[in-house]
Amino acid sequence: MTAGTIIVTGSDGAIGSAACRMLRERGYTVIGTSRRVESGNLNHLDQSSPQSIHTFARRLADNGIRIDGLLHNAGTMRRTYATTPEGLELTIATNYYGVYLLTRELLPLLNEGANIVGTVSLTCNIAHIDNNFFNTGAGAFSQLGTYAASKLAVMLLFDELLRRHGDRYRINVTDPGVVDSRMLHMDRWYDPLADTLFRPFCKKPEGGATPAVNAVTAETGGRLFRGYRSRPFPKRWLNPGLSQWLWQESEKHFLSQNRDNDIT
Fold it and tell me: Per-residue confidence at 1, pLDDT binned at 50, 70, 90?
């Protein structure tokens, strides 16, 4: 008898594949996703695409799948500015809005007491979010700055999720730290130098996956998992007013897309 079913997004990456392996070793049934793969044990999911998210959620519902854990591991750090067909900057669409939307779509499939986990980053310390967050233009885009803003938005989203659904689900976040993965490549001239001088000191994928696995199997909520420990959500990253604003704006985007695409 298995311990339950857990969704892991971005499960073809270094951290995602390690997390899937570790969860299966603990007896969980794992449903992994990838935007690149639609074969084997992985399900196609492009987290920047509302239609892809809706199709994935509908497939789970049609197959009667109930979920005990949702680990939002997929993410991107783009070098150049780009937008989705819906007009969102691609980093924000993938790292934040896709997390919001997939969570919203899968809530009806979650068993009571299920774990929902978002992935944040120490870049939250340098992040800034204002009312142009959903309208990030080319002039406001930067590789690290936009990535940091998207991760702070995830932190704020999960704080809002905790307020709205913390009585029913366990809401946590994980920070994998600096891991030897594709994310380290900044697509810059100094990548080979960084590979030589910096990458050998980074965590192995299992080290980055450990806090994620602990978070998605935890018995408590409202915690940031980092390394082998956890702590309450860092107060310096929280802003209840901004969390509520992000939620409301995300709802507007969701409802607008439903009208435009007739998603029901």
Answer: very low
For residues 77 and 47, the answer to whether their CB atoms sit within 8 Å is no
Model-level pTM? 0.88
CATH number for 5-261: choose from 3.30.565.10, 3.40.50.720, 1.10.10.60, 2.40.30.10.
3.40.50.720
Measured distance CA(63)–CA(45) in Å, rounded: 16
Q: How far apart are CA 184 and CA 191, in angstroms?
A: 8
pLDDT (tens digit per residue) in 112-129 = 999 999 999 999 999 999
Closest CA to 41 of 69, 63, 8, 66: 8
Task: Measure the CA–CA gap between 84 and 94, rounded to whole angstroms.
Answer: 9
User: Are the C-beta atoms of residues 15 and 179 closer than 8 Å to each other?
Assistant: yes
**pLDDT given for residue 99 in this prediction:** 98
The backbone torsions φ and ψ at residue 130, rounded to the nearest 5 degrees and listed phi first, read -130, -170
Tell me the three state secondary structure of residue 118: strand
* Burial tier of 27 (Cβ tally within 10 Å: 0-12, 13-18, 19+): exposed
Residue partners of 23: CB distance under 8 A and separation at least 6: 6, 8, 30, 213, 216, 217
Angle at alpha carbon of residue 78, lines to 39 and 252, rounded to 5°: 85
